Amino acid sequence: MRMQKFLLLAILFFFVSDVCIAENRPGATTFTLAAAYYHFSSARNLKNASLPNIALAYNFNERWAIEGGVGVINTNQRTTDQGVHGFLYTIDGLYRFKPHQHFEPYVLAGIGILGLKPNGNSNEHQGNINAGIGAQFFADKSIALRAELRDVYTMSGGKNDWMANIGVSYLFDGETPESPVVEKTSLKDENPEAK
Questions:
Q1: What torsion, rounded to 10 degrees, do the Cα atoms 161, 167, 170, 175 define?
Q2: What DSSP letter does each residue of 86-147 carry, written as one string?
Q3: Residue 57 main-chain phi, psi, to 5 deg
Q4: What gap in Å lies between CA 16 and CA 161, rounded to an integer?
Q5: Closest by alpha carbon to 131, among 148, 113, 155, 114?
Q6: Tens digit of each residue's pLDDT (9 = 90 or more) over 54-99
Q7: Rounded CA gap, 181 and 195, in Å?
Q8: 115-165 tens-digit pLDDT
Q9: Beta pairing partners, 80
Q10: 48, 56, 67, 193 — which has fewest CB within 10 A?
């Protein structure tokens, strides 16, 4: 419930802020706090669940970035209602398309691990590949609302999950366009007759 309130406030902040041009800048580090709806493959026998998650990305330039993320899973088995806990870890490459004012679409793809632990049983770690599409909506040069859809395919057993994710990103540091240099002129330079 707290995560839903946080996201509602973030969306409200976005709409009352001044709209500016998208600002994914080279060398910036991006921290994202988000919440996802995670839809499990029917072969897993797990109830769909919310998945709070965080991600940290580094921008190589305006288009390319690398991102690592981790999400927390708390769900139940469909048949026994036994609790299942775990984590989703991902490492992805991002490619951002040309921005249109405050809107910047992107695609991502990478690898990850889905670790699940039913109560009283040992951990299961399953490798996955994932890919998705998304967009950032900038409320400020360093703050953006982010939304994405991602397909998560587990290679062992061919289980296909998907997730819808929404969150807020904050950009730290990075290169910014240089301000034009204003040269100082003396009164003498402006008026050659002045002494």
A1: 50
A2: EEEEEEEEEEEPPPBTTEEEEEEEEEEEEEEEETTS--EEEEEEEEEEEEEEESSSSEEEEE
A3: -125, 155
A4: 35
A5: 148
A6: 999 999 999 999 999 999 999 999 988 889 999 999 999 999 998 8
A7: 27
A8: 998 766 677 889 999 999 999 999 988 999 999 999 999 988 889 999 999
A9: none
A10: 193
| 190 SS3 class | helix
Residue written as token pair 């690592």: 68
CA angle (167, 170, 174) in 5-degree steps: 145
Reference 36, options 19, 20, 55; nearest CA is: 55
- How many distinct helices (H) and strands (E) make up the chain? 2, 8
